[in-house]
Amino acid sequence: MTKKILVVDDEPDVRNTVKTVLEKNGFEVISAISADDGFKKWQVEKPDLVLMDIMMPGTPVKDVIPKMKGTKVAYLSVVRTSEAEKEDLMRSKNIVDFIQKPFDINELVKKVKKLAGA
Amino acid sequence: MAQDLKKELASNQTVLLLMPGTEYNEIIVDVLKKLSGNICYITLNKTYDSLIELFKKKKINTENIVFIDAISKTIKNVPDQGDGVYYVSSPGAMTELSLTIEKFIRHKFDYLIFDSLTNLLIYESKAPVSKFVSSLVNKIKQGKTKAIFYALSVKEQETLIKESGMFVDKVIDLDK
């Protein structure tokens, strides 16, 4: 079964690149431009994995992720955090990875395959 | 590089430092190693904890640095202030950020480091950011604190960089 990925990022370049590459690798990809938009689409689409930019205008990501109960979320982060902070963030129930930007697109595909169970 | 910056700061109160993303961490460490005195460090892209981790690793004494962290509150729950750090809601909370910086400028720091202008544009459009920079530079100029504004040398933000360049005394482009 095709796995569904929700990409939430305010940067159009990141959204488009990730969408194109993941679709080429057989995923169905939905994209959203903010945490709020991402939550709305999550409610309708029920994706297998959410790739969520950590730093976006609007509602803070940390307030939206707990609402996405039962869905794996991987952070895409341009923000530099300490190792301890990373561990703390990963302790949230549905956070499964912390992917530092800029990322290698092939590495991202590998990670998404593993995380989404494709 | 940092030696040049020190020289420029001797004759200019405000400097915009344009840097390539690939050498960002090396440059911010290099700058801090060269500056002596009290420093107010405003961070919009690295959490206070990550900066402390980086500076400790590079053996930089942080006792003379007070941090204004505008990013941690967007990713985790933190109080309004900690030991040597003040937290602002988000880089987009420009009024709050401006008021917090203003309080610190009054304390007559030797240096203010703004890291970085590039990140403000994630949250706000060019016009308010430009207004923020101009107003901040004016406030700095009322005192003696020397200010260094960091920005990534990226094409997408060329206009803001050019405009900010008009407000500061000197622009140093490390990408050239």
Characteristic key phrases:
heterodimer, A: 118 residues, alpha/beta, Rossmann fold, five-stranded parallel beta sheet, 5 helices, 5 strands, B: 176 residues, 8 helices, 45% helix
Overall structural class of chain B, as computed from helix and strand content, comes to alpha/beta
Mean pLDDT of chain A: 93
Oligomer: heterodimer
CATH level 4 superfamily of chain B: P-loop containing nucleotide triphosphate hydrolases
What letter string, H or E per element, gives the SSE order of chain B? HEHEHEHEEHEHHEHE
Label the CATH architecture of chain A.
Answer: 3-Layer(aba) Sandwich
Main beta sheet of chain B, described?
Answer: 8 strands, mixed
Q: For the report, how would you describe the main beta sheet of chain A?
A: 5 strands, parallel
Fraction of helical residues of chain A: 40-55%
CATH class of chain B: Alpha Beta
Which regions of chain B are unreliable across 5 or more consecutive residues at pLDDT < 50?
A: none
Percentage of residues assigned to helices of chain B: 40-55%
The geometry of chain A reads as: globular
Q: Any guess at the CATH architecture of chain B? A: 3-Layer(aba) Sandwich
First-residue to last-residue Cα separation of chain B: 12 Å
Sheet with most strands: strand arrangement of chain B = 4-5-3-2-6-7-1-8
The gross shape of chain B turns out to be: globular
Q: How many DSSP-defined strands of chain B?
A: 8
- Termini separation of chain A comes to 9 Å
Report the top-level CATH class of chain A: Alpha Beta
Summary, kept brief:
With 118 residues, chain A is an alpha/beta fold. Chain A has helices at 12-24, 35-45, 61-64, 83-90, 105-116, and strands at 4-8, 28-32, 49-53, 72-77, 95-100. In chain B, α7 packs parallel to α8.
Task: Kindly describe this structure.
- The complex is a heterodimer of chains A (118) and B (176).
- By secondary structure, chain A is α/β, with parallel strands linked by helices.
- Chain A has one domain: Response regulator (Rossmann fold, 3-Layer(aba) Sandwich), CATH 3.40.50.
- In chain A, 41% of the residues lie in helices and 23% in strands.
- Chain A contains 5 helices and 5 strands; from the N terminus they run βαβαβαβαβα.
- In chain A, strands 2-1-3-4-5 form a 5-stranded parallel beta sheet, sandwiched between helices.
- By secondary structure, chain B is of the alpha/beta class.
- Chain B has one domain: 3-Layer(aba) Sandwich (Rossmann fold).
- Chain B has helices at residues 2-11, 24-34, 48-57, 72-75, 94-105, 117-123, 126-141, 158-167; strands spanning 14-19, 39-43, 65-69, 81-82, 85-87, 111-115, 146-152, 170-173.
- Chain B has an 8-stranded mixed beta sheet, with helices on both faces.
- In chain B, helix 1 packs across helix 2 (24-34).
- The radius of gyration of chain B is 15 Å and the shape is globular.
- The two termini of chain B are 12 Å apart.
- The A-B interface holds A 10, 54-57, 60-62, 78-85, 88-89 and B 45-47, 49-50, 52-54, 71, 73-77, 90-92, 119, 122-124.
